[in-house]
Specification:
The protein is an all-alpha fold and about 130 residues long. It has one domain. About 80% of the residues lie in helices and about 0% in strands.
Length: about 130
């Protein structure tokens, strides 16, 4: 019983420290990427800002803080695109397997999902 209480106390302490560490480092507001289009627009806008900073011969401390701030939004966008690409891969695999078994219904349904998702990524986005 004593071991169980010690383990539970350790788990609570670890969770608290982990939460404190996250709060310590996640102190800048960021833009969310709720869908692919927003993620791509955020990448376009924030990549331009990052490029302007990283192309400088010498970065000031203020520049580096700005880079740190930009990365929160960029990370959200990249995470969204990773999820999108995972879903795209699943749909493409469904199309692949359906083509082997001559399953027209799945080829068309998953093919449409795959094409719609990839078109969002490869089509030029109109960011405002």
């Amino acid at each position: 019983m004593k071991t169980l209480i010690t383990m539970a106390t350790g788990a609570v302490l670890f969770a608290s420290l982990n939460t404190m560490a996250e709060e310590k480092y996640q102190h800048f507001a960021s833009l969310d990427a709720p869908n692919t289009e927003v993620a791509l627009c955020n990448l376009q806008q924030f990549n331009a800002k990052l490029a302007a900073l990283t192309s400088k011969q010498q970065l000031t401390a203020e520049d580096m803080v700005k880079v740190h701030e930009l990365t929160y939004t960029l990370e959200n966008a990249v995470i969204r695109l990773q999820k999108d690409l995972d879903n795209i891969a699943v749909e493409l695999e469904k199309v692949h397997l359906a083509s082997e078994s001559l399953d027209q219904k799945t080829i068309q349904a998953s093919g449409d999902k795959y094409l719609n998702a990839t078109n969002l990524i490869i089509a030029p986005s109109s960011c405002e």
